[in-house]
Design a protein that fits this description.
Elements: H1 3-25, H2 28-44, H3 53-81, H4 92-111, H5 114-124, H6 129-136, H7 143-162
Helix pairs in contact: 1-2, 1-3, 2-3, 4-7, 5-7
Length: about 160
């Protein structure tokens, strides 16, 4: 897509796109971020037909908004599963124990290879296996095996540290 065509689409459509995203997201800054991401995708990977760029842009932006909601839902579910991650007036002793545990986990993670560590971080952050495969650059069919081995290595090292 020629630069001037992209600029014209951006200048005429950014505010409108942001305005259409606001009801989906309920936040102007978030709507602006998603609109910017959609325009970046338009710039990097424009549709084959420039005349369909506006419709393409709205579809991409809507999908990004829905993806954000799914990720936010997974984040909330993780927080509910691991309530110790939130501070509920914990005592100084509890805070010290939590810091010691975090240091121990970091020490064990540092002993894992980069791929294993990255896979574990991404899985805990709520990424799906297909996303992990793309980020880590491995075959999607092997993510489960890589993840299982990484978890086993982590557990073995963690339990060894416990003794």
């Amino acid at each position: 897509m020629p630069e001037e065509t992209y600029r014209a689409i951006y200048d005429s459509g950014f505010r409108e796109l942001r305005g259409r995203l606001y009801p989906l997201l309920g936040s102007w800054p978030l709507a602006e971020d998603i609109a910017q991401e959609a325009f970046l995708k338009l710039y990097l990977q424009p549709p084959a037909e420039t005349g369909k760029a506006r419709a393409w842009l709205y579809r991409v932006a809507t999908n990004l908004a829905y993806n954000w909601h799914r990720q936010e839902k997974r984040r909330i579910e993780r927080e509910e599963r691991f309530p110790g991650n939130r501070d509920h007036g914990e005592t100084a002793e509890d805070a010290a124990l939590r810091r010691m545990e975090a240091a121990r986990v970091q020490e064990v993670l540092a002993k894992l290879g980069l791929r294993d560590r990255t896979c574990l971080f991404l899985k805990f952050a709520g990424f799906k296996y297909a996303e992990i495969a793309r980020i880590v650059n491995i075959d999607p069919a092997t993510v489960g095996t890589v993840m299982a081995r990484a978890q086993a290595k982590f557990q073995k090292e963690y339990l060894r540290k416990e003794r």
